[in-house]
Amino acid sequence: MHVPESVTAYPQFSGTTSFPWFKALFDQNFFDSGVDIFFNFLLFYVPAGLLGWTVTARVKKGLSDTERQRLRSRFIGIVSLVGLILFCVVYFAKFRQPYVDYASVAALDGTNVIFPLIEYSYRDIDLMAVSQGPSLEHLLGTDREGRDVFTRLIYGTRISLTIGVVAVSIYTSIGLVLGSLAGFFGGRVDSIILRMIEIMMCFPVLFLILTLAGFIEEPSIFHIMLIIGLTGWTGIARLVRGEFLRLRNQDFVQAAIALGFTQARIIFRHVLPNAVQPVFVSATFGVAGAILIEATLSFLGVGPANAPSWGQILTSGRNTQQMTLILSSGFAIFLTISLLNLIGEGLRDATDPKLRK
Question: Which segment of the chain is annotated as a signal peptide (predicted)?
Fold first, then answer.
């Protein structure tokens, strides 16, 4: 944005060329959700990580397979740790900038301003355009508060996918650890973990989630992620346990035990990498299930009220009987779940040739 020296309303822009979009990505006056800050942070960090991966890939050419794998693991660990630290710094710094009416700045003579393709924010309220139908100005219309439905649907994509991915990551981690311990040690450890799995499976998942959500006064996106993550680990644990029971008596495990490796190294570096293939397939289906659970919670009024998730848009459409809101969010949920299920079936066929048709 280039602003001439004649500007008096906003002297900080006088005679300068500025890019307020970069600052606005981390402005917590606007992005009050950590999910938004996280995705905006990835816009810069992922390209930097890919560049570093490209540079290290050239170094790997002169190394052995073991050294190459070790370098790859260290690089992923360092990049993940540095990314987590930088994100925490950005998020907890609580960066805020004063409000600027860029439309007024654009109206000044000689001022060049570039606006985004989508004019509206997901929470911009227009009381003069409440509950409107689709039009050229609002492609999918507006809700009862005058917010643009198309913009909220786009923002809801990353909210819903984040809920699915993070929730599945939580219960996959729990299931991997408990299933590995049960399958490797057997005996009393296996019995205790199996009783835990059976107790969790006795409760209907949806009613258990609704009960846990009832104890939260103001449910947020992170609460939904945590609740789904803490209640869905039983299937992963059973899969990993079965794979460990199959693998623990094979020759490479017995050789590792004979060499005196620690039990933690045998479990997590030798057996677990050979037991995670069915977990990937189950996790893919789990992301679709988590998105559907979030939509169900929002539809029942338990989910976050202000987050522009697909479930919240569907709930708003149910309350106002606006078919645009119902059909747009419902189609987004249906399409995403269908694609994730197809990906899961493809992974299952690829990892198990016996299932190929």
Answer: none
